[in-house]
Design a protein that fits this description.
The protein is an alpha+beta fold. It has three domains: 5-168, Phosphorylase Kinase, domain 1 (2-Layer Sandwich); 175-370, Transferase(Phosphotransferase), domain 1 (Orthogonal Bundle), CATH 1.10.510; 380-439, no CATH class. It has helices at residues 5-16, 26-31, 57-65, 74-80, 125-140, 175-180, 189-208, 264-269, 274-290, 306-310, 334-347, 358-370, 378-397, and strands at residues 70-71, 89-93, 96-103, 113-120, 149-157, 160-168, 214-215, 224-226, 232-234, 241-242, 251-252, 271-272, 420-421, 425-426, 434-435, 438-439. The chain has a six-stranded mixed β-sheet, with helices on both faces. Strands 7-10 form a two-stranded antiparallel ribbon. The chain is globular and about 65 Å long. The protein starts with a helix and ends in a 24-residue tail after the last strand. 40% of the residues are buried. Belongs to the protein kinase superfamily. ATP binds at residue 118.
């Protein structure tokens, strides 16, 4: 059956009965259905205080998006993914599975195009509404930092309803993969800034760049995809909602989203605003800095919740560098890192009204990016490597008996604070080193303990 056969069939029945058709296109199918708590698009309605002049996503889709998306045949997508084989699977989640495939170009000429095909779980109305939401939102939204929806497929056959979406292929996976999966090469400091800036620009576009305000509602590292040039692109709009209109300040909805990223005010009240997205953005900013997940049950009890852990290290404190991702190997700007942490703190303010807008966030991040050199200097790179060699040596020799009080002066380099004097001898190091499987940290004091010069024999670095 053709992908829109189910729509055409309903249209023909409506014409035959002499009644006005309730569903003529995918867009009208969405616009005539009320959005539930799963997200999706809602028409202008009394619940939001909108007026007859309010522009909705569904009306914009009728004008702009309907003819831009490609109507794929189910058999074509099945062949493109080699029968949705495991070898082609890119990922799996609550929405269903995503497969890599190759489809013919729209004009039928040239090489086949690499695509990602999302197959939604067959969960009845809920899955269908999320599919409709993605079709409408991404049929209207267009920005360099949003993933491009190429087309869709909808089939009601013997195997039940099949709902598929076809996106541009993102060869570099997601930000989550590069931050948390050790098999991936660590992202450099400059690349992290470029990625989070791109994500911020995409979110600012949703909030402020359209006739309709869009609340993303699921901003997290796994939804920030990376193209061949590591440009960030927001994906997965199944939970997106139109923002409040008229005199309303929020949209009331049951709480959905991802634990650890949802704003506390949204969780407590069900009141959804763009500032809910800003809070989620603040969480990801700290993930960028630390290389840690917002929730990680594999860490010690005091470090499992990221926001609680980083609260011990204020951006202006001497021990702030202790939060920085060790995979950066000291090659980052401490000044810029402090500014990013301050920005994260402003995004995470308890009072949602006091949080910045995403356009303000973009301005801060642009200044941070512009202040960075294109690549680390040779001196910084060499110094970072020297520090890492030092750490490797100390891992073999330091015991907890060597832990003393904070007493080292001078500047820090990234995570570590070596004091190299007298021809390369070591007089002090911070204690955030994993020695014999234990983190040498005094949880009862505000400052981290350092290796005591009195207890630690001085050791010359190898040439």
């Amino acid at each position: 059956m053709n992908c829109l056969g189910w729509l055409k069939k309903r249209r023909s029945k409506s014409k035959g009965s002499g009644k006005r058709a309730t569903t003529t296109t995918t867009a009208s199918a969405v616009s005539t259905s009320r959005s539930d708590d799963s997200g999706g698009v809602r028409p202008a309605s009394k619940s939001t205080g909108s007026t007859s002049s309010h522009r909705s996503i569904s009306s914009l889709y009728e004008e702009r998006g309907h003819g831009q998306l490609r109507d794929f045949d189910y058999d074509e997508l099945q062949a493109a993914t080699n029968g949705f084989s495991r070898a082609q699977k890119l990922g799996e989640g609550g929405f269903g599975s995503v497969y890599k495939g190759f489809v013919r170009p729209p004009d039928g000429k040239g090489d086949r195009l690499a695509v990602a095909v999302k197959c939604l779980n067959q969960r009845g109305l809920q899955g269908h509404k999320q599919w409709l939401a993605e079709v409408q939102f991404l049929g209207v939204l267009e920005h360099p930092n949003l993933v491009k929806l190429l087309g869709y497929c909808a089939v009601d056959g013997e195997r039940g309803p099949q709902r598929l979406l076809v996106y541009e292929y993102m060869p570099n996976k997601s930000l989550e993969d590069h931050l948390f999966v050790r098999a991936y090469t660590p992202l450099s400091w400059n690349r992290r800034l470029q990625i989070i800036l791109g994500a911020a620009e995409g979110l600012a576009y949703l909030h402020e760049g359209l006739e309709v305000q869009v609340i993303y509602r699921d901003f997290k590292a796994s939804n920030i995809l990376l193209d061949k040039d590591f440009r960030a692109k927001l994906s997965d709009f199944g939970l997106a909602r139109e923002g409040p209109t008229g005199a309303n300040t929020h949209v009331s909805t049951a709480v959905v989203g991802t634990h650890g990223y949802a704003a506390p005010d949204y969780i407590e009240t069900g009141h959804l605003t763009v500032k809910s997205d800003v809070w989620s953005f603040g969480v990801v900013l700290y993930e960028i800095l630390t290389g840690r997940r917002t929730l990680d049950r594999h860490r010690p009890p005091g470090e499992q919740k990221l926001l609680e852990w980083v609260s011990q290290f204020a951006p202006d404190s001497r021990n702030f560098r202790m939060i920085m991702d060790p995979r950066l190997r000291g090659e980052y700007s401490v000044k810029a890192a402090r500014e990013i942490a301050k920005l994260a703190e402003s995004c995470l303010l308890k009072n949602a009204k006091e949080r910045p807008t995403m356009s303000e966030v973009v301005d801060v991040l642009r200044r941070a990016v512009q202040a960075q050199p294109d690549t680390p200097t040779a001196a910084a790179s060499a110094k970072g490597k020297r520090v890492m060699r030092l750490i490797d040596l100390l891992k073999l020799n330091i015991s907890e008996a060597h832990v003393g009080k904070l007493g080292v002066d001078g500047p820090m380099l990234g995570l570590f604070e070596p004091q190299v004097r007298n021809g390369g001898e070591v007089s002090g190091l911070p204690v955030q080193l994993c020695c014999r499987g234990k983190r040498l940290m005094n949880q009862d004091k505000a400052m981290m303990r350092l290796i005591s010069p009195a207890n630690q024999p001085r050791k010359a670095l190898p040439p």
